[in-house]
């Protein structure tokens, strides 16, 4: 595909994806939720270094992009649960590629 | 692969990749250079919205990560050329996935 390097239409769709997934947290949150529905604290534990403020902001954005679902259960007190949507799961191949490239890059740069 | 959701080692390699490729410009610059070696102004034209200051900063970072090569030719005045490295080209599949997902997301969200 890179042979179509520089093609404006392709540049636009790559930019669309990057702007939606922008930042280092969204894909890590989705990766955590790909294991199954979770509560706020569980996601926070899965994603090292994320603050509650940032997690809450990123969850809202992911919900806006229809990548996750937020559900409130009528317990006392009410419980809130987050789950990945089918559209969110469509990122599986991209997460795969990031995982493999992350390993490759670490080997290339640090040599282990 | 998402079935291994939440696995810490996979989370780490995804985070490595995201931190290296962080921001919305690096992958667009690499996509532009995948067409062939280019000069500063040519890359700037390919990547809509990027300022010269940002492009210069991102090119330095990409060079540090061994994803591009900067060459100075002994012309008068000297000419500077940027090209993607083999390691940079290893991002081809990731760029493919971003491209396809960008199209899918646009259709899902905007319906066209």
TrEMBL record, chains A, B:
GO molecular function: DNA binding
InterPro entries the record matches: ArsR-like_HTH (IPR011991), HTH_HxlR (IPR002577), WH-like_DNA-bd_sf (IPR036388), WH_DNA-bd_sf (IPR036390)
Keywords for the protein's UniProt record, in alphabetical order: DNA-binding, Transcription, Transcription regulation
PROSITE patterns: HTH_HXLR (PS51118)
HTH hxlR-type domain: residues covered: 7-110
PANTHER family: TRANSCRIPTIONAL REGULATOR, TRANSCRIPTIONAL REGULATOR, MARR FAMILY
Keyword Cell membrane on entry: no
Species of origin: Sinomicrobium weinanense
UniProt record, GO biological process: regulation of DNA-templated transcription
Signal peptide bounds: none
Iron-sulfur as UniProt keyword: no
Protein name listed in UniProt: Helix-turn-helix transcriptional regulator
Alphabetized CDD domains for the sequence: HTH_ARSR (cd00090)
């Amino acid at each position: 595909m890179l042979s179509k390097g520089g093609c404006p239409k392709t540049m636009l769709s790559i930019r669309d994806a990057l702007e939606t997934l922008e930042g280092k947290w969204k894909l890590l949150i989705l990766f955590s939720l790909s294991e199954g529905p979770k509560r706020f604290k569980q996601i926070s534990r899965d994603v090292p270094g994320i603050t509650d403020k940032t997690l809450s902001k990123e969850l809202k954005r992911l919900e806006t992009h229809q990548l996750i679902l937020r559900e409130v259960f009528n317990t006392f007190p009410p419980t809130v649960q987050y789950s990945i949507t089918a559209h969110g799961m469509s990122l599986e191949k991209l997460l795969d590629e990031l995982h493999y490239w992350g390993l490759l890059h670490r080997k290339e740069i640090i040599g282990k």
